[in-house]
Amino acid sequence: MTAITLSGVSKRFDAVQALYNIDLGIEKGEFVSLIGPSGCGKTTLLRIMAGLVKPSEGKVLIKNEPPKVACSNQEIGLAFQRPALIPSLTALQNVQLTTKLTRHNHCLSAKDLLTEFGLGNFIDCYPDQLSGGMQQRVNIACALVHRPEYLFLDEPFGALDEITRENLGIWLESILIESPKTVVFVTHNIEEAIVLSDRVIIMSVNPGEIFEEIKINLPRPRGRTTRTEDSFLETLRHARTSLYKTMNGGNHE
Amino acid sequence: MNKRMYLIMIISIPLLWIAAIKITNFPSFVIPPPELVVDVLVKESNIFFEHTTITVTWALMGYLASNVLAIGMAISFTYLPWFESFATPWTVLIKNVPFVAIASILVITMGQTPLPRVIVVVLVTFFVILANVTKGLKSVDQVLLDRMETLDASKWQIFWNIRWPSALPYYIASHEIAFTGSVIGAIIAEWMFAKNGLGYLIVRSMSQYRADRLYAVVLISSALSVGAYILVKVIESRMFKWKREISNGI
After folding, report:
1. Residue in B151, B242, B249 nearest the CB of A98
2. Contacts of residue A126 in chain B, CB cutoff 8 Å?
3. Facing residue for A78 by CB, picked from B146, B245, B250
4. Which domains does chain B have, with CATH numbers?
5. ipTM score of the complex?
6. A78 CB-near residues (< 8 Å, 6+ apart)
7. B48-57, pLDDT tens digit by residue?
8. pLDDT of B150-199, one tens digit each?
Protein backbone atom coordinates (compact mmCIF):
# COMPACT_ATOMS: atom_id res chain seq x y z
CA MET A 1 0.00 0.00 0.00
CA THR A 2 1.46 3.35 -1.02
CA ALA A 3 1.69 5.70 1.93
CA ILE A 4 3.36 8.73 0.31
CA THR A 5 2.96 9.65 -3.35
CA LEU A 6 4.82 12.40 -5.17
CA SER A 7 3.68 13.19 -8.70
CA GLY A 8 5.59 15.60 -10.91
CA VAL A 9 6.89 17.59 -7.95
CA SER A 10 9.04 20.58 -8.90
CA LYS A 11 10.29 23.42 -6.76
CA ARG A 12 11.73 26.69 -7.94
CA PHE A 13 13.31 29.37 -5.72
CA ASP A 14 13.34 32.50 -7.89
CA ALA A 15 15.76 31.65 -10.70
CA VAL A 16 16.95 28.38 -9.15
CA GLN A 17 15.21 25.14 -10.11
CA ALA A 18 15.74 23.16 -6.89
CA LEU A 19 13.66 20.12 -7.82
CA TYR A 20 12.36 18.95 -11.15
CA ASN A 21 9.59 16.50 -11.92
CA ILE A 22 9.96 14.11 -8.99
CA ASP A 23 7.76 11.01 -9.14
CA LEU A 24 8.06 8.75 -6.14
CA GLY A 25 5.90 6.29 -4.23
CA ILE A 26 6.80 5.19 -0.70
CA GLU A 27 5.16 2.08 0.72
CA LYS A 28 3.69 1.92 4.20
CA GLY A 29 6.39 0.88 6.65
CA GLU A 30 9.16 1.43 4.11
CA PHE A 31 12.46 3.10 5.02
CA VAL A 32 13.60 5.28 2.16
CA SER A 33 16.85 7.27 2.14
CA LEU A 34 17.57 10.25 -0.05
CA ILE A 35 21.23 10.75 -0.92
CA GLY A 36 22.94 13.03 -3.38
CA PRO A 37 25.44 15.84 -3.73
CA SER A 38 24.95 19.04 -1.73
CA GLY A 39 22.32 21.28 -3.27
CA CYS A 40 20.41 18.46 -4.97
CA GLY A 41 17.24 19.34 -3.05
CA LYS A 42 17.07 16.43 -0.56
CA THR A 43 16.05 18.65 2.35
CA THR A 44 13.62 20.63 0.19
CA LEU A 45 12.01 17.38 -0.94
CA LEU A 46 11.71 16.20 2.67
CA ARG A 47 10.20 19.53 3.72
CA ILE A 48 7.71 19.32 0.85
CA MET A 49 6.70 15.81 1.99
CA ALA A 50 6.27 17.09 5.56
CA GLY A 51 4.03 19.91 4.35
CA LEU A 52 6.49 22.63 5.41
CA VAL A 53 7.11 23.87 1.87
CA LYS A 54 4.66 23.98 -1.05
CA PRO A 55 5.84 22.56 -4.37
CA SER A 56 5.86 24.95 -7.32
CA GLU A 57 4.32 22.20 -9.44
CA GLY A 58 3.01 18.69 -8.87
CA LYS A 59 1.48 17.26 -5.76
CA VAL A 60 2.29 15.25 -2.66
CA LEU A 61 -0.22 12.94 -1.06
CA ILE A 62 0.08 11.18 2.26
CA LYS A 63 -2.60 8.47 2.45
CA ASN A 64 -4.28 10.21 -0.51
CA GLU A 65 -4.51 13.52 1.35
CA PRO A 66 -2.28 16.61 1.29
CA PRO A 67 0.52 16.56 3.91
CA LYS A 68 -1.28 19.22 5.96
CA VAL A 69 -3.94 16.63 6.79
CA ALA A 70 -1.25 14.30 8.19
CA CYS A 71 0.06 17.29 10.18
CA SER A 72 -3.36 18.13 11.56
CA ASN A 73 -3.82 14.43 12.48
CA GLN A 74 -0.41 14.65 14.17
CA GLU A 75 0.86 11.67 12.21
CA ILE A 76 4.27 13.16 11.38
CA GLY A 77 7.45 13.02 13.45
CA LEU A 78 10.29 15.29 12.41
CA ALA A 79 13.97 15.43 13.38
CA PHE A 80 16.75 17.51 11.89
CA GLN A 81 20.53 17.52 12.15
CA ARG A 82 20.31 20.36 14.68
CA PRO A 83 18.21 19.06 17.57
CA ALA A 84 14.94 20.97 17.95
CA LEU A 85 15.27 21.25 21.71
CA ILE A 86 14.42 24.14 23.99
CA PRO A 87 17.53 24.98 26.06
CA SER A 88 15.54 26.01 29.15
CA LEU A 89 13.68 22.68 29.34
CA THR A 90 15.11 19.39 30.59
CA ALA A 91 15.28 16.34 28.32
CA LEU A 92 12.05 15.04 29.86
CA GLN A 93 10.25 18.40 29.54
CA ASN A 94 11.33 18.68 25.91
CA VAL A 95 9.79 15.30 25.10
CA GLN A 96 6.72 16.12 27.19
CA LEU A 97 6.19 19.26 25.13
CA THR A 98 5.25 17.05 22.17
CA THR A 99 2.74 15.09 24.28
CA LYS A 100 1.33 18.34 25.64
CA LEU A 101 0.63 19.53 22.11
CA THR A 102 -0.79 16.20 20.97
CA ARG A 103 -4.56 15.92 20.95
CA HIS A 104 -4.85 12.13 20.88
CA ASN A 105 -4.28 10.06 23.99
CA HIS A 106 -2.15 7.19 22.72
CA CYS A 107 1.19 8.89 23.30
CA LEU A 108 4.02 6.91 24.81
CA SER A 109 5.28 7.83 28.26
CA ALA A 110 8.05 10.40 27.77
CA LYS A 111 9.94 9.04 30.75
CA ASP A 112 9.69 5.42 29.61
CA LEU A 113 10.74 6.36 26.10
CA LEU A 114 13.84 8.21 27.30
CA THR A 115 14.70 5.28 29.58
CA GLU A 116 14.28 2.93 26.63
CA PHE A 117 16.60 5.21 24.64
CA GLY A 118 19.27 4.78 27.32
CA LEU A 119 18.72 8.22 28.85
CA GLY A 120 17.05 7.12 32.11
CA ASN A 121 19.73 8.84 34.20
CA PHE A 122 19.67 12.02 32.15
CA ILE A 123 15.99 12.94 32.01
CA ASP A 124 16.51 15.98 34.26
CA CYS A 125 19.51 17.25 32.31
CA TYR A 126 19.27 20.30 30.09
CA PRO A 127 20.21 19.89 26.41
CA ASP A 128 23.55 21.68 26.90
CA GLN A 129 24.47 19.17 29.58
CA LEU A 130 24.11 16.26 27.15
CA SER A 131 26.52 15.00 24.50
CA GLY A 132 25.66 15.42 20.81
CA GLY A 133 24.54 11.79 20.56
CA MET A 134 22.33 12.10 23.65
CA GLN A 135 20.77 15.33 22.36
CA GLN A 136 19.95 13.61 19.10
CA ARG A 137 18.32 10.71 20.96
CA VAL A 138 16.18 13.21 22.88
CA ASN A 139 15.40 14.90 19.57
CA ILE A 140 14.28 11.59 18.04
CA ALA A 141 12.28 10.83 21.21
CA CYS A 142 10.47 14.15 20.66
CA ALA A 143 9.68 13.00 17.14
CA LEU A 144 8.50 9.54 18.20
CA VAL A 145 6.68 10.02 21.51
CA HIS A 146 3.31 10.77 19.89
CA ARG A 147 3.62 7.53 17.87
CA PRO A 148 3.55 9.09 14.41
CA GLU A 149 2.99 6.92 11.34
CA TYR A 150 5.53 8.91 9.34
CA LEU A 151 9.02 9.82 10.39
CA PHE A 152 11.00 12.43 8.46
CA LEU A 153 14.67 12.59 9.42
CA ASP A 154 17.03 15.16 7.92
CA GLU A 155 20.62 14.11 8.57
CA PRO A 156 19.87 13.43 12.23
CA PHE A 157 23.33 11.96 12.81
CA GLY A 158 25.17 14.39 10.52
CA ALA A 159 26.98 16.28 13.27
CA LEU A 160 28.15 13.20 15.14
CA ASP A 161 31.38 11.22 15.02
CA GLU A 162 31.58 7.98 13.03
CA ILE A 163 31.22 5.54 15.95
CA THR A 164 28.35 7.45 17.58
CA ARG A 165 26.42 7.67 14.32
CA GLU A 166 27.02 3.95 13.71
CA ASN A 167 25.66 3.16 17.20
CA LEU A 168 22.67 5.44 16.72
CA GLY A 169 21.96 3.80 13.35
CA ILE A 170 21.84 0.38 14.99
CA TRP A 171 19.69 1.84 17.76
CA LEU A 172 17.27 3.47 15.28
CA GLU A 173 16.86 0.24 13.35
CA SER A 174 16.04 -1.67 16.55
CA ILE A 175 13.39 0.92 17.43
CA LEU A 176 11.83 0.72 13.99
CA ILE A 177 11.79 -3.08 14.01
CA GLU A 178 9.83 -2.90 17.27
CA SER A 179 7.52 -0.14 16.07
CA PRO A 180 7.54 0.06 12.25
CA LYS A 181 6.99 3.40 10.58
CA THR A 182 7.23 4.90 7.14
CA VAL A 183 10.55 6.71 7.20
CA VAL A 184 12.14 9.23 4.86
CA PHE A 185 15.78 9.72 5.77
CA VAL A 186 18.08 12.37 4.30
CA THR A 187 21.78 11.65 4.61
CA HIS A 188 25.15 12.29 3.02
CA ASN A 189 26.50 8.99 4.25
CA ILE A 190 26.06 6.19 1.70
CA GLU A 191 26.91 3.38 4.15
CA GLU A 192 24.38 4.69 6.65
CA ALA A 193 21.73 4.91 3.94
CA ILE A 194 22.34 1.30 2.84
CA VAL A 195 22.42 -0.14 6.38
CA LEU A 196 19.17 1.54 7.39
CA SER A 197 17.06 1.59 4.22
CA ASP A 198 14.76 -0.61 2.22
CA ARG A 199 15.37 1.65 -0.75
CA VAL A 200 17.94 4.34 -1.50
CA ILE A 201 17.04 7.19 -3.83
CA ILE A 202 20.05 8.80 -5.48
CA MET A 203 19.46 12.35 -6.58
CA SER A 204 21.34 14.43 -9.10
CA VAL A 205 21.94 18.15 -8.87
CA ASN A 206 20.98 21.16 -11.09
CA PRO A 207 18.13 20.54 -11.08
CA GLY A 208 17.37 18.05 -8.30
CA GLU A 209 16.04 14.92 -9.95
CA ILE A 210 15.84 11.23 -9.10
CA PHE A 211 18.87 9.67 -10.75
CA GLU A 212 18.47 6.10 -9.57
CA GLU A 213 16.57 4.00 -7.06
CA ILE A 214 18.43 1.14 -5.42
CA LYS A 215 16.47 -1.57 -3.62
CA ILE A 216 18.37 -2.86 -0.58
CA ASN A 217 17.80 -6.57 -0.06
CA LEU A 218 20.08 -7.14 2.92
CA PRO A 219 18.53 -9.14 5.77
CA ARG A 220 17.54 -7.34 8.99
CA PRO A 221 18.63 -6.61 11.62
CA ARG A 222 21.75 -5.16 10.06
CA GLY A 223 24.40 -4.94 12.73
CA ARG A 224 28.06 -4.01 12.43
CA THR A 225 28.91 -7.28 10.66
CA THR A 226 26.59 -6.29 7.79
CA ARG A 227 29.07 -3.58 6.80
CA THR A 228 31.76 -6.20 6.14
CA GLU A 229 29.62 -8.59 4.08
CA ASP A 230 30.14 -8.94 0.34
CA SER A 231 26.49 -8.18 -0.50
CA PHE A 232 26.73 -4.90 1.45
CA LEU A 233 30.01 -3.96 -0.19
CA GLU A 234 28.59 -4.76 -3.62
CA THR A 235 25.56 -2.52 -2.92
CA LEU A 236 27.87 0.19 -1.61
CA ARG A 237 29.99 0.00 -4.78
CA HIS A 238 26.85 0.27 -6.88
CA ALA A 239 25.51 3.28 -4.92
CA ARG A 240 28.84 5.05 -4.93
CA THR A 241 29.27 4.53 -8.67
CA SER A 242 25.80 5.92 -9.22
CA LEU A 243 26.57 8.92 -7.03
CA TYR A 244 29.77 9.63 -8.98
CA LYS A 245 27.75 9.50 -12.18
CA THR A 246 25.38 12.17 -10.89
CA MET A 247 28.35 14.48 -10.55
CA ASN A 248 29.74 13.72 -14.03
CA GLY A 249 26.57 13.99 -16.05
CA GLY A 250 26.11 10.21 -16.27
CA ASN A 251 29.76 9.23 -16.81
CA HIS A 252 31.49 7.07 -14.23
CA GLU A 253 34.98 8.48 -14.81
CA MET B 1 26.69 39.20 40.25
CA ASN B 2 29.87 40.02 42.14
CA LYS B 3 28.64 41.21 45.58
CA ARG B 4 32.17 42.03 46.75
CA MET B 5 32.64 44.53 43.93
CA TYR B 6 29.41 46.31 44.86
CA LEU B 7 30.59 46.48 48.46
CA ILE B 8 33.90 47.97 47.33
CA MET B 9 31.99 50.55 45.29
CA ILE B 10 29.79 51.54 48.26
CA ILE B 11 32.83 51.94 50.52
CA SER B 12 34.76 53.84 47.83
CA ILE B 13 32.12 56.52 47.26
CA PRO B 14 32.58 58.43 50.59
CA LEU B 15 36.36 57.94 50.39
CA LEU B 16 36.54 59.44 46.89
CA TRP B 17 34.13 62.14 47.98
CA ILE B 18 36.34 63.15 50.93
CA ALA B 19 39.42 62.96 48.71
CA ALA B 20 37.77 65.31 46.16
CA ILE B 21 37.02 67.84 48.91
CA LYS B 22 40.59 67.66 50.23
CA ILE B 23 42.14 68.02 46.76
CA THR B 24 39.89 70.81 45.44
CA ASN B 25 39.38 72.67 48.72
CA PHE B 26 35.89 73.64 47.59
CA PRO B 27 33.76 75.11 50.37
CA SER B 28 30.94 73.04 51.87
CA PHE B 29 28.23 74.96 50.00
CA VAL B 30 29.79 73.78 46.72
CA ILE B 31 30.78 70.23 47.69
CA PRO B 32 29.21 69.37 51.05
CA PRO B 33 31.03 66.72 53.11
CA PRO B 34 29.34 63.28 53.39
CA GLU B 35 28.40 63.82 57.07
CA LEU B 36 26.47 66.98 56.14
CA VAL B 37 24.54 65.16 53.43
CA VAL B 38 23.75 62.26 55.78
CA ASP B 39 22.61 64.79 58.35
CA VAL B 40 20.19 66.44 55.90
CA LEU B 41 18.98 63.01 54.80
CA VAL B 42 18.05 62.19 58.39
CA LYS B 43 16.64 65.58 59.32
CA GLU B 44 14.53 65.96 56.17
CA SER B 45 13.69 62.29 55.80
CA ASN B 46 9.97 63.04 55.60
CA ILE B 47 10.40 65.39 52.66
CA PHE B 48 12.73 62.97 50.86
CA PHE B 49 10.40 60.04 51.51
CA GLU B 50 7.39 61.94 50.16
CA HIS B 51 9.14 63.04 46.95
CA THR B 52 10.85 59.68 46.42
CA THR B 53 7.49 57.91 46.70
CA ILE B 54 6.05 60.20 44.05
CA THR B 55 9.00 59.64 41.69
CA VAL B 56 8.95 55.87 42.19
CA THR B 57 5.17 55.71 41.70
CA TRP B 58 5.26 57.57 38.38
CA ALA B 59 8.37 55.73 37.24
CA LEU B 60 6.60 52.42 37.89
CA MET B 61 3.36 53.58 36.24
CA GLY B 62 5.24 54.75 33.17
CA TYR B 63 7.32 51.59 33.12
CA LEU B 64 4.26 49.38 33.34
CA ALA B 65 2.65 51.26 30.45
CA SER B 66 5.90 51.02 28.51
CA ASN B 67 6.09 47.25 29.01
CA VAL B 68 2.48 46.67 27.95
CA LEU B 69 2.89 48.84 24.86
CA ALA B 70 6.30 47.48 23.85
CA ILE B 71 5.37 43.80 24.32
CA GLY B 72 2.08 44.30 22.47
CA MET B 73 3.86 46.04 19.62
CA ALA B 74 6.66 43.42 19.49
CA ILE B 75 4.05 40.64 19.22
CA SER B 76 2.30 42.58 16.45
CA PHE B 77 5.63 43.02 14.66
CA THR B 78 6.22 39.27 14.84
CA TYR B 79 2.84 38.18 13.53
CA LEU B 80 1.95 41.12 11.26
CA PRO B 81 4.96 42.00 9.07
CA TRP B 82 2.94 44.72 7.28
CA PHE B 83 2.38 46.43 10.63
CA GLU B 84 6.12 46.37 11.35
CA SER B 85 6.80 47.92 7.91
CA PHE B 86 4.17 50.57 8.60
CA ALA B 87 5.17 51.38 12.20
CA THR B 88 8.99 51.25 11.95
CA PRO B 89 9.41 54.72 10.34
CA TRP B 90 7.15 56.15 13.05
CA THR B 91 9.13 54.53 15.87
CA VAL B 92 12.38 55.80 14.30
CA LEU B 93 10.92 59.31 14.11
CA ILE B 94 9.59 59.36 17.68
CA LYS B 95 12.79 57.81 19.05
CA ASN B 96 14.96 60.47 17.42
CA VAL B 97 12.99 63.57 18.35
CA PRO B 98 14.62 64.88 21.58
CA PHE B 99 12.21 63.85 24.31
CA VAL B 100 12.88 67.17 26.08
CA ALA B 101 11.12 68.85 23.13
CA ILE B 102 8.30 66.29 23.18
CA ALA B 103 7.93 66.76 26.94
CA SER B 104 7.57 70.53 26.54
CA ILE B 105 4.88 70.00 23.90
CA LEU B 106 3.14 67.55 26.23
CA VAL B 107 3.10 70.10 29.07
CA ILE B 108 1.61 72.75 26.79
CA THR B 109 -0.99 70.27 25.53
CA MET B 110 -1.86 68.45 28.73
CA GLY B 111 -1.01 70.98 31.40
CA GLN B 112 0.28 70.08 34.84
CA THR B 113 -1.22 66.57 34.84
CA PRO B 114 0.68 63.38 35.64
CA LEU B 115 0.30 62.17 32.05
CA PRO B 116 3.37 64.01 30.60
CA ARG B 117 5.47 62.37 33.33
CA VAL B 118 4.22 58.91 32.36
CA ILE B 119 4.79 59.65 28.68
CA VAL B 120 8.39 60.79 29.30
CA VAL B 121 9.11 57.55 31.17
CA VAL B 122 7.55 55.61 28.29
CA LEU B 123 9.68 57.51 25.76
CA VAL B 124 12.86 56.75 27.72
CA THR B 125 12.14 53.02 28.21
CA PHE B 126 9.82 51.87 25.41
CA PHE B 127 12.29 51.47 22.52
CA VAL B 128 14.78 49.31 24.42
CA ILE B 129 12.03 46.87 25.40
CA LEU B 130 10.48 46.91 21.93
CA ALA B 131 13.78 46.21 20.17
CA ASN B 132 14.80 43.43 22.55
CA VAL B 133 11.45 41.63 22.72
CA THR B 134 11.00 41.82 18.93
CA LYS B 135 14.47 40.36 18.43
CA GLY B 136 13.79 37.62 20.99
CA LEU B 137 10.44 36.65 19.48
CA LYS B 138 12.01 36.44 16.04
CA SER B 139 15.15 34.59 17.06
CA VAL B 140 13.36 31.25 17.46
CA ASP B 141 15.18 28.33 15.95
CA GLN B 142 13.50 27.42 12.63
CA VAL B 143 13.77 23.68 13.42
CA LEU B 144 11.55 24.22 16.46
CA LEU B 145 8.99 26.09 14.39
CA ASP B 146 9.02 23.30 11.80
CA ARG B 147 8.48 20.74 14.52
CA MET B 148 5.55 22.76 15.87
CA GLU B 149 4.06 23.05 12.39
CA THR B 150 4.12 19.29 11.81
CA LEU B 151 2.41 18.89 15.19
CA ASP B 152 -0.30 21.31 14.03
CA ALA B 153 0.37 23.56 17.04
CA SER B 154 -1.80 26.67 17.23
CA LYS B 155 -0.31 30.18 17.05
CA TRP B 156 -0.94 30.57 20.75
CA GLN B 157 0.81 27.25 21.56
CA ILE B 158 3.80 28.28 19.45
CA PHE B 159 3.89 31.68 21.11
CA TRP B 160 3.61 30.39 24.64
CA ASN B 161 5.85 27.32 24.34
CA ILE B 162 8.44 28.48 21.83
CA ARG B 163 8.49 32.18 21.04
CA TRP B 164 8.02 33.63 24.52
CA PRO B 165 10.68 31.41 26.22
CA SER B 166 13.04 32.42 23.42
CA ALA B 167 12.24 36.13 23.96
CA LEU B 168 12.46 35.99 27.75
CA PRO B 169 16.27 36.37 28.09
CA TYR B 170 16.11 39.37 25.70
CA TYR B 171 13.19 40.85 27.63
CA ILE B 172 14.96 40.52 30.98
CA ALA B 173 18.15 41.99 29.48
CA SER B 174 16.16 45.02 28.32
CA HIS B 175 15.13 45.71 31.95
CA GLU B 176 18.79 46.22 32.89
CA ILE B 177 18.72 49.42 30.84
CA ALA B 178 15.02 50.29 30.76
CA PHE B 179 14.10 49.78 34.44
CA THR B 180 16.91 52.02 35.66
CA GLY B 181 16.00 54.38 32.82
CA SER B 182 12.46 54.65 34.15
CA VAL B 183 13.72 56.29 37.37
CA ILE B 184 15.91 58.65 35.37
CA GLY B 185 13.00 59.43 33.00
CA ALA B 186 10.69 60.25 35.89
CA ILE B 187 13.29 62.56 37.47
CA ILE B 188 13.91 64.36 34.17
CA ALA B 189 10.15 64.85 33.67
CA GLU B 190 9.82 66.28 37.19
CA TRP B 191 12.90 68.42 36.71
CA MET B 192 11.24 70.04 33.69
CA PHE B 193 7.69 70.69 34.78
CA ALA B 194 6.48 68.98 37.98
CA LYS B 195 5.68 70.45 41.35
CA ASN B 196 6.80 67.37 43.28
CA GLY B 197 9.13 64.39 43.06
CA LEU B 198 12.93 64.10 43.20
CA GLY B 199 13.37 66.06 39.95
CA TYR B 200 11.44 68.96 41.41
CA LEU B 201 13.55 68.73 44.58
CA ILE B 202 16.71 69.06 42.44
CA VAL B 203 15.39 72.26 40.85
CA ARG B 204 14.36 73.67 44.22
CA SER B 205 17.71 72.79 45.83
CA MET B 206 19.57 74.45 42.96
CA SER B 207 17.56 77.65 43.16
CA GLN B 208 18.08 77.76 46.95
CA TYR B 209 21.82 76.91 46.70
CA ARG B 210 21.20 73.88 48.90
CA ALA B 211 24.11 71.70 47.76
CA ASP B 212 23.61 69.39 50.75
CA ARG B 213 20.04 68.62 49.65
CA LEU B 214 21.11 68.35 46.01
CA TYR B 215 23.73 65.75 46.94
CA ALA B 216 21.14 63.93 49.06
CA VAL B 217 18.83 63.70 46.03
CA VAL B 218 21.72 62.44 43.91
CA LEU B 219 22.39 59.74 46.49
CA ILE B 220 18.72 58.72 46.63
CA SER B 221 18.27 58.63 42.87
CA SER B 222 21.53 56.70 42.40
CA ALA B 223 20.43 54.23 45.08
CA LEU B 224 17.08 53.81 43.29
CA SER B 225 18.72 53.17 39.92
CA VAL B 226 21.33 50.78 41.30
CA GLY B 227 18.59 49.07 43.35
CA ALA B 228 16.49 48.67 40.19
CA TYR B 229 19.48 47.16 38.38
CA ILE B 230 20.23 44.74 41.22
CA LEU B 231 16.56 43.73 41.38
CA VAL B 232 16.63 42.89 37.64
CA LYS B 233 19.80 40.84 38.13
CA VAL B 234 18.26 38.92 41.04
CA ILE B 235 15.09 38.20 39.05
CA GLU B 236 17.23 37.15 36.09
CA SER B 237 19.29 34.72 38.14
CA ARG B 238 16.11 33.24 39.69
CA MET B 239 14.36 32.91 36.33
CA PHE B 240 17.33 31.40 34.54
CA LYS B 241 18.39 29.00 37.23
CA TRP B 242 18.84 26.41 34.48
CA LYS B 243 21.70 28.45 32.99
CA ARG B 244 23.50 28.36 36.32
CA GLU B 245 22.97 24.61 36.56
CA ILE B 246 24.46 24.16 33.11
CA SER B 247 27.52 26.29 33.82
CA ASN B 248 28.00 24.49 37.15
CA GLY B 249 27.73 21.14 35.43
CA ILE B 250 30.31 21.82 32.74
Report:
1. B151
2. 242, 245-246
3. B146
4. 49-249 (1.10.3720.10)
5. 0.86
6. A50, A84, A143, A151, A152, A153, A154, B146, B147, B150
7. 999 999 999 9
8. 999 999 999 999 999 999 999 999 999 999 899 989 998 888 878 899 99
